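Subject: complex prediction, re-run

Hi both,

The earlier run crashed halfway through, so I resubmitted it with identical inputs.
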Amino acid sequence: MAADRPPFEDVYRDYLGRIYAYIRAQVTTSADAEDITAQVFMNAYQAYDRFEPRNLTPAAWLFRIARNATLDHFRASGRRDRLQRTIEHQPEAEVDPASMAEERIQYRALLAHVARLPERQRDAISLRHSGLSFEEVGHLMSCSEDAAKMLYHRALKALREAVQGGAPGTGSAGPGASRGEPPHKPGEEHAVE
Amino acid sequence: MSDDKDDLELEALQRKLDDAFATTRPRRGFEDELWLRMQARRPLWTRLRDGIASLGSLVREAPAIPLGAVAVLLVVVIGAGILLNSGLNSSKASHGALSQAPAPADLALGEFGKLPTPALHPGLVDQGVPNSSSFAAAPTVAVPSNLYFGPANLRWTGQLPVEPPARALVYRYSEPGPELIGPFVNSLGATSKQATAPGYLGTYSGPGLTVSVRGTIPQLPREPFFVLTSANGAGATGTDPQTIAMNFLSYYGLFPTWPAVDGGVQQSGQQARVVFMRAFQLTTAQLAQVVDWNGERYGMEVDLINSQVRTVSGPLPLSLDSTTYRLISNEEAVRMALASPPASSQSIEPMPTVNLNTLEEVYVLAVSGNQGYYEPAYLFSGTFSYNGQTYTKRVLVPLVDPTLRS
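This time it finished cleanly. Structure:
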């Protein structure tokens, strides 16, 4: 193992949550997010001997794998159809009334709005708020740092409009909003305080 | 909308996004589950590397084991790891069944359905094959004579360990047929099939060796195992029994594919037995050793006479499926231990009172139909005196949620 390559277990512990959140912001169920996250780290584990930290940070390397895995997921499953089904058939009974009071519901609603942005906007928001620099976002999205910034800000405005518009679900979760009902199944995730 | 207000709203939205991403995390237990799945898929040599690590922890936990012996074993394990890692194609390891054992397949939570419930069956012994001295009985470990499994008033007075994980892996094998046995024995150089006794999957011989393979013995239970008898020790040499044993196993590609924990050397005159205890990974940081129907640890045994390996016996290298099952809590485990019926009806009068004060995380085999399951369990124990003798009482508590067991 290269001297400057941290043990894989450290990378795993450090990034599992962030990678999961990045994926979770793009898919409609936590089950899908778990599956893709598992695939990401399985692939990363196998490829870790070939990872060269001098050329790439572990974050950029892992997020690239995560991005590809998420895109593969959408290609394989036909995202629009799944999304439509989820919106149309989201059963009311799956909403846990007790958890509606919790602040994290707002966050789920917000991420649900993110998931409905156009692909590149969704990606820019997710990568940026997963802790990557604009340079890293640009690198992953095959554009310049400045282009990544512009894309991100356009995405941010689009997100604000979507949140203020109230769709999807029953509420809005942006600034000034109180809470919303997310398309994600409640109670499936553990919000870290 | 003014620019200032616009900026403020976007900043607020950014803060909310930061919070949303920072607080969205997988459910509890996912991190450990995924890590275990990744570990189960590792290639053989990396598992050997972990075996070395576990030997290190054994030194810390069991100072009674001679450090010098462990050091020697460490060196040999490292050597074996390097040999296997570098692909020692000139040895039989290159075509041994062990090195080709597929990685466990991952299945979804609870995919095996209801599991059989593991239990202790004290006092049972494998009778081997009646009227046939040429077929070996199941390898046995020395069972202390002062074990007591009868009725007792039980109390828990020990300290509970850290709560077990919410879920842990259960491993499953399917009973092997002749189609799997052939390649295994052939890889050892045993190609000539001998008469097969009932209960055996086959006996084969080759230059200087005989290999018998026996199927699952459900009543104990015991997983399929092999017994290799060597006439010449395959020329495995070394300065001590452990080194010789390791060289022998490396030569035949028989080094355990499972995490092996040093079981020490039992020596008597010119005879020696080197033992590698079998373990499974219970959590990312913890191995749990496999125990048999008496609650004794076991694994692979190498018997030597005059520094020559004579027999090797151990679990047949089989591919395992694995999936996670929900576990009970420590509190529940203690409650079950105290309420559990005795494993044996043989009793001491008056009924002794036993303070159970130690417990060990273990894996134990349970068999159902054509499949065997290695399931996590707690093995409680405590001692009491009777007629001037000290006895040990053992209680096995399966950790898999009872609603998921039959």
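Chain B touches chain A through 26 residues (CB under 8 Å).

- K.
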